[in-house]
Specification:
The chain is of the alpha+beta class. It is built from 13 helices and 20 strands. Strands 1, 5, 6, 9, 10, 11, 14, 17, 18 and 19 form a ten-stranded mixed beta sheet that branches. Strand 15 and strand 16 (about 450) form a beta hairpin. The relative contact order is 0.13. It is found in: Cytoplasm, Cytoskeleton.
Length: about 650
Amino acid sequence: MPLFINRDQIFAHQVHLLEHKLRSKEERILELETENALLHLRLADCLGKLRRDNENALQARQHHQHQKHVQKNTHAALGKLLSEVQVLKQDVRDVFAVYVGFATELDEQSRELQERVGAACCVPQGNDAEVQALQDRVNALERSLQEERERCRTERLRRKLLHNTLVELRGNIRVHCRVRPVLPFDCGLGQSASGFGSTWSEEVVQAVSDDSVLVNCSKAGTSTAMNKMFEFERVHGPEDSQHAVFEEVRPLLTSLLDGYNVCIMAYGQTGSGKTHTMIGSQTEDPAGLEGVPLQGVIPQSANELFRLISEKPAESHSVEVSVIEVYNNEVFDLLCKDSEGGAVGAKRDVITTSTGTSEVPALTHGQNPQLSPTGRHHHQHWDHPQTPSSHQLPPKPPAESLPHPPPHPKSPDLTPALTHELVHSSAQVMHVISTVLRLRARAPTLVHRDSSRSHLIVTLTVTSKSPNALALARRLQCARKELQRSPQREWWSPRCRRAAAGRSGSPASSPCHSPYHSPCPSPRPSISQAPIRTKLQLVDLAGSECVGMSGVTGVALWETSCINRSLSALSDVLGALAEQRPHVPYRNSKLTHLLQDSIGGDAKLLVMLCVSPTQKFMAESLQTLGFGTRARQVQREPTRRKNTTLRIK
Ligand SMILES: Nc1ncnc2c1ncn2[C@@H]1O[C@H](COP(=O)(O)OP(=O)(O)OP(=O)(O)O)[C@@H](O)[C@H]1O
């Protein structure tokens, strides 16, 4: 059967197929074009973003470079300022020397002229005109002498101001020196170590001006003078009263309410007047009646502190007092009380807190200060003036073997916490201190019949509920520094970060663990509302002593060795700070560990050197003055924050 193929139909079918293919190709082209457009858009987007990122990075780099530049400029300016201050100081010193020379010359001329006037007056009549001329010259010279004296005084004041600025700029430790008068117990006659027949009571240490002290080190019997000169911020002579000594300390106390910790420490050999300077003593009354109390730095500081507080709004500040004794390298809380409320010293720990500061742990809320199981022994109170060799005591006993009072029967919770007492007046402060002072270890030695055998640290903690602008600015400054140092630390709450970074902190409900906030219930107030706590530490160190001179034996000998070791640890710490060594051996003694913040931190520290003036103690006096010179060389930085809380035993 013939096969009919309808060509038209086949072509039509083929056309249909091709048309279909064409349509789908066109659709695909359309799809691809749309995708292409989308990709273009994304590309443009990405390019824009990239450009913006580049611009931001460039800006950040420029900003960083600008900041580096500014920092460099500031450093250079500071360096320049310091060298200018140095040059100025030198200039003032030179000018001062010239003035002194000039004034002396004028003095001599004036005296000479006065003598001539006197002589001329005796000459018979007729020389009146000459006498008058001479008198006029004398008057003119006296006037210019007076003017020079005035200028000299102004220059002196300027020099002092410049020096104080330098001390502030460098964070140096201030060092004052007090040379006590020669006292009856200095006057035991004897041969000097050199054996040249001079008496030991000869006065060899002298305050020659208000900032220099001179030690005459010449050997007795030789004609060559050998003098050593030491310079400090202020030097007090034997005639200076307790009041005059405190007047130079007073400005430091203002800093306490401006957010600074302050520490005043008396250093010197035994019998040199540390306790007299810090606490005070009674004057000898010739009539045998009770003497006049000569208040030292501690009572006068308490007075001044409460005077400053009384100028502030009522209830804005509160003050707590604590008293610590470091005896035989152990820390004792002297305010700790027994069940009957009597004061008993209790042994405490020193810890390094997470903020890098040293503390005797504060009283835990709701717990009573109780006697620790290793309570403080009651010190021997020997009747002086016996020599130590006269009492029957075992040689060099370890501290643990000394008698301990039994633990409090009703005190299962033996928290080693430091006791603070709230006080409202300086009289209350002194009452608290005087009630526990009898616990301080004392013993008679051949050098001093009432020698302190321990270091005493009285701390006044001031809580400012409405701190002043300076204190707030300082707290923010500290917080900023901390944020720069350790921005990752968990104790920085977002609010705290914002406030420290300079932006306003919104009232936050999250608890903040910043060390710049004092303990207070959650939610904490903002950084500008939290109370500020500052410390005034007043330290009466035990005196260094030469065993050969003090003639100590037994327990007293052991005490002397502990005292001398802790003082040499203090000296080592200052040496390390002065040489800016990376490791400062604070932990070599409990004393230096306890005072770590004050010595190495940003507390305002004043060391009061106490010096005996006589030949007998010259070696110790030179050592004390050397210690002060080393302390002056320390240029401090704020202490660094530590990561962990560490307990030492
Ligand atoms: N500037 C002074 N004016 C008058 N008397 C003073 C002066 N300084 C000290 N004294 C007297 O000297 C004696 C010894 O002084 P103080 O007890 O203060 O010495 P110290 O350095 O504390 O000794 P130690 O370290 O052994 O305890 C005391 O009787 C004191 O009254």
